[in-house]
Amino acid sequence: MRVIAGRLRSRRLVAPAGMDVRPTSDRLRETIFNILAPRIEGARFLDLYAGTGAVAIEALSRGAAHGTLVESNKRSARAIRENLTVLSLEQNTEVVEDEVLHALRRMHAQFDIVFLDPPYSLHGQYDACLKQLSTLPLLAPGSIVIAEHDKRFAPEESYGELKRYRSLVQGDAALSFWAAE
Questions:
Q1: What is the pLDDT of residues 93-152, one digit of tens each?
Q2: Strand-pair partners of 170
Q3: 179 vs 165: CA distance, rounded Å
Q4: Rounded to the nearest 5 degrees, what angle is found at the Cα of 139, between the Cα atoms of 105 and 60?
Q5: In what order do the strands lie in the sheet with 66-70?
Q6: Full DSSP string of 19-46
Q7: Half-sphere exposure of 117 (CA within 13 A, CB side)
């Protein structure tokens, strides 16, 4: 696994051994960031269920100002910290080692872009997380929320003020995009 583009292009990332983590593929990350290109410079990026941290690291490589990465798995959080240290990104990041729903309730910052990618089998996490994002004051004006999910699963069209405005399928994965109305 590697950083695809930006100032950290081609740098390798470590991932914990085993099948606990399903990193977002290079191809899907490229698709995400092609879509986000006009919004990424200077953005505050929140990566929920961060896994290896690859998505937030890609955002930082492409010009995001800050990344907050939330991951409850200790081995994954250790891999994230290792990746951030090797890439000298500690100053621009915060790693929150906690369950996502609990971490969201404790946050006070606002974010321009939120990415969530819970394990595909945990469909309920999508609804719970998106409902919480729609009610907490974590989304900056004009922010977007992106969820990676199995193409056979479709999260709701809306969660409070969050309305889905785009979805796309790539292989077995799908991306859904919401914005506040």
A1: 999 999 999 999 999 999 999 999 988 777 789 999 999 999 999 999 999 999 999 999
A2: 173
A3: 7
A4: 100
A5: 93-96, 66-70, 44-48, 111-116, 139-150, 173-180, 162-170, 158-159
A6: SS--PPPHHHHHHHHHHHHHHHTT-EEE
A7: 24
The encoded tokens of residue 131 equal 């409902």
Residue 19: what pLDDT?
Answer: 47
Contact 28, 146 (CB under 8 A): no
Give how far Cα 21 sits from Cα of 16, 44, 64, 74, 167, Å.
7, 24, 24, 12, 23
Return d(Cα 174, Cα 2) in angstroms, integer: 21
Please give the domain boundaries of the chain with CATH numbers for all domains: 26-180 (3.40.50.150)
**Predicted TM-score (pTM) above 0.85:** yes
Contact of 93 with 118, CB cutoff 8 Å: no
Strand spans (E) along 83-150: 93-96, 111-116, 139-150
Contact (CB, 8 A) for 97 and 72: yes
Cβ–Cβ < 8 Å for 87, 116: no
Return the number of other C-beta atoms located less than 10 Å from residue 109's C-beta.
Answer: 12
Helix (H, G, I), strand (E, B) or coil at 146: strand
Burial class (CB in 10 A: 0-12, 13-18, 19+), 31: middle
